[in-house]
UniProtKB/TrEMBL annotation:
Upper classification of the organism: Bacteria, Pseudomonadati, Pseudomonadota, Alphaproteobacteria, Rhodobacterales
SUPFAM superfamilies: Dimeric alpha+beta barrel, Winged helix' DNA-binding domain
Gene Ontology terms, MF aspect: sequence-specific DNA binding
Domain HTH asnC-type: 14-75
Domain of life: Bacteria
Alphabetized InterPro entries for the sequence: ArsR-like_HTH, AsnC-type_HTH_dom, Dimeric_a/b-barrel, Tscrpt_reg_AsnC-like, Tscrpt_reg_AsnC/Lrp_C, WH-like_DNA-bd_sf, WH_DNA-bd_sf
Protein name, as recorded: Lrp/AsnC family transcriptional regulator
UniProt KW Transcription regulation keyword: yes
Stored Pfam families: AsnC_trans_reg, HTH_24
Keyword vocabulary terms for this entry: DNA-binding, Transcription, Transcription regulation
Keyword Amino-acid biosynthesis listed: no
One GO-annotated biological process of the protein: response to amino acid
GO CC terms of this entry: cytosol
Source organism per UniProt: Aliiroseovarius sediminilitoris
Length: 162
């Protein structure tokens, strides 16, 4: 076990059955408890108890469905690199509120290095991105914005390597 695995093990103790349950849930959370129990070599009640404990520990978050963005008309995915000259708490609060209010923002990360933030933005087309951009810069002062259009999604997963 490497150091990173040891650190994770210290925060939440997972045995092999927990890991099997988590792998099954990541692959298809709609499976019945009976199916999961059979796949992990246990019975329904212990599996349910383990899932409940993993939820309480914060290992399992909310259940969602993954939608196909393109089939729903969201054909453009932009990665937006943001540099700011503002680093005060007031600016950051306004910026975070603006991001949270925009459903187009699928992900937002604060970075170390020359770029301060990166956003993953899903929109119908370039015009919709421009509307998003214009609205964002009207709400908060941003020093520099670079938008990169994803030409092709090569890999996408929500599954962690358990």
């Amino acid at each position: 076990m490497d150091q990173k695995e040891e650190e994770n093990e210290m925060s939440v103790r997972l045995d092999e059955i927990d890991r099997k349950i988590l792998r099954e849930l990541q692959g298809d959370a709609s499976q019945s408890l009976d199916v999961i129990a059979k796949k992990v070599g246990s019975s329904k009640t212990p599996v349910w108890n383990r899932i409940r404990k993993l939820r309480e520990a914060g290992v399992i978050g909310k259940n969602t469905m993954v939608m196909d963005a393109e089939s729903l008309g969201f054909e453009a995915c932009f990665f937006v690199l943001i540099r700011t000259s503002e680093h005060e708490a007031d600016w950051q609060g306004k910026f975070l509120a603006a991001l949270r209010a925009r459903p187009e923002v699928m992900e937002a990360h604060r970075l170390a290095g020359e770029i301060d933030y990166i956003l993953k933005v899903r929109v119908k087309n370039a015009r919709a991105y421009d509307e998003f951009y214009q609205a964002l810069i009207s709400e908060v002062k941003i020093f520099n914005v670079t938008a990169l259009l994803s030409m092709e999604e090569i890999k996408f997963t929500t599954e962690l390597p358990l």
